[in-house]
Amino acid sequence: MSYLKYKLYKNNNNLAKGKYYARAFHDETITMDQLAEHMSTHNTPFSKGTIYGVLQDMVVCARELMLDGKKVKLDNLAIFSLGLSSRPADTPQDFNVSTHIIKAYINAIGTGEISKKQLDQVVRFKEVVEYNRSGEEENPSDGNPSSGGSQRSYTLTLMASPSNGGSVSGGGQYNEGSQASISASAASGYQFVKWSDGVTNASRTVTVNADLTLTAEFTAESASGGGSGTDEGDDMGM
What we know:
By secondary structure, the chain is α+β, with helices and mostly antiparallel strands. Among the domains are: 1-25 and 128-151, no CATH class; 153-238, Immunoglobulin-like, CATH 2.60.40. The chain has four helices and 13 strands. Strand 3 (72-74) and strand 4 form a beta hairpin. Helix 1 packs across helix 2 (48-67). The relative contact order is 0.13.
């Protein structure tokens, strides 16, 4: 289940002053380097460095095309283009670029699986904090403002090491205290060794009481002495 986190803010402008509005909340900005590392954990034969190089080339080429007046569409993500804002002129003859054009900016319109229609179907909303009458932040809620609950939710992140050694399932967002069923399946030519916390059962149940990252460690069947996969720590891949 996907959640879009939000916070409530009090409007201090003249229009609707004193009213509360929701704003999307983001707790982290993922850099291109972090994105490449994240992608490298998703059962791909390509290294982080290779992925990073491709992403860099994509950015350079997309910028070049947009500056040439073209739109760039990344399927199931967004259509990117450059736009501008301007001041009005009384007549076409009065229009002057240096006077009437205010700025250029980038547009991104969701498409495919992240279009507005699709987002309306799959995204649920979750409040990050509650507010008392004075507008001060109180305890985190369970995503249902009307319930007044204070249940936390956490992210269970699962990875495979090496990334082509097998697949994992069961990761995601869970309420505090939930029992999550997770499993690891070895790819052809590999065998499961253990989870990074030492558990040797490929299928197991985990109690989620905090954000948790677990790595399923695999070893090639031809290797001797069992696996030696390593826990990749805080690398985020689900």
